[in-house]
Amino acid sequence: MHLIVIYVIGLIFGLGISISGMANPAKVLNFFDFAGIWDPSLIFVMGAAILVTAPGYFLVLRGPKPIFGNAFTLPGTKLIDRRLVGGSFTFGLGWGLAGFCPGASLPVISTGNPDVLIFTASFIVGIFIARYMIQRSAHQRDAAPAS
After folding, report:
1. pTM above 0.85, yes or no
2. Closest by Cα among 43, 1, 129 to 121
3. Alpha helices by DSSP H, 21-113
């Protein structure tokens, strides 16, 4: 049942990305083109997503635990640090250059578009690089002599 729910949620997300036109990188890139062919439709897609998601979070987080999990996995801090800023910058840079965010690239991967395949492979490699750097940083911090 768990995998069926994951599949249905992914299907709904993919359909939403496709129907909204956000699977088209030109449409996303036009949102960032304020001096040229600016397309504000991305604002409406994000607004609709917030209108659906906010009440959903409110309802789900009222329960003691997720339906298909043992506990909620929420951020443990509200600290804005180098990792958060660096990750946000990298995400925005990739999105602005390619016209895809990781979530939107996955439904479009089946098109076989080389740009999508390169972008998706790049962000997956980036995930592994980031994990490696985080583990290396933690190891160095743990191995550092106490002052």
Report:
1. no
2. 129
3. 25-31, 41-61, 82-98, 102-108
